[in-house]
Amino acid sequence: MMQSIPGMLRRKFLYGMALAPAGIATAQQGASGARSQPVGLAPDQGGVVYWNADDLKKAHAALAAAAAKGATTPGPRDLVELPITRTHAFNFLCRYPNPSRPPRAEWHEGCSDVYFIVAGGANITIGGELVDRQEVANEPGEYQGSAVKGGKSYRVKPGDVINIPPATAHLTEPDPGGLSYMLVKVNIGMYPWSMVATQQNTTEPRVNVPLGPDQGGTVYWAVEELKKAHATLAAAAAKGESNPGPRDLLQLPITHTHAFNFLYRYQNPARPSRAEYHEGNTDIYFIEAGGAEIQVGGELVERVQVRNWPGEYQGSSIRGAKSYRVKPGDILSIPPATAHLTEADPGGLSYMLVKVNVGMYPWSIVATQQSAPR
Q1: 173, 189, 205 — which closes off a domain?
Q2: Which domain covers residue 39, as residue numbers?
Q3: Is pTM, for the whole model, over 0.85?
Q4: What stretch of H or E contains 61?
Q5: What's the rounded Cα separation, in Å, for the pair 46 and 59?
């Protein structure tokens, strides 16, 4: 008898899934603790999730305090909503030094990792060779090692963003005060996505950008670089100029599974903001500079399909939406088929946008995330 895909995923999920809230604390502390309880997959990409920067910093402080006491609770999922879907998964990780258990280097063959640094600091070494490489038991494609040889070191701080492609060694060495970041794990086992190669943005015409056939390479965006791009785009907008565009200022890879864009939204009385609706992707906003009111949900008013863009719609406004007041450090996840409208402050709003393709086959790895640090 043929089994349904959701049913198979649930069984695989219940067999091995954790995506490790307290597991991070356990592994970093060296304390013994029970394996994390399974967290259900969101069958429909879940709902809208807004993470306030202040709440994330409180979670960082609570996790750091627990670690200092050698406690394994609370875990991140006790403090922060962290959805898991078939295409991508969220986790909030607090890393901290523990002389009795040095951090382990990692290697994932089945996903790209995207880090948005929330609090604290660390040196993260990426690339090179995984030393003393060992496969993680019952986790196909997952490896750990004692160190990374020949990688590049990045000094990270709040507001930084990192993209780590699959099959790339990486090692996080946190500062004494610890490091916390929102982790988005993107499933790479999927078919090509035509929409991703024609990303639009607000300051330049739509262009075709080559897809990264192998998920591209490591990209590190320093918060200072992103704030500088915000200022440059704001200055151009104030002059009514469309150049430079975000891709003239920043490396913004596009792959079959997910795409990066850096959007600057601003007030323009001659061209009011349009509401948007995407059927083919989840949008994740990492707010970097400025502020705005973002309306999410409800009904798209005067809905029209964007020409030559299947599944893409716009409208004049939204009826019945919920409004979010966003600022730097906030994160917003908007699932597919959800109306949203950004009304920027006078100084504009800039955010790193991660668009995750949702038209894909199931991913076994996402349903069996281990409780070891990731």
Answers
A1: 189
A2: 5-189
A3: no
A4: helix 53-68
A5: 22
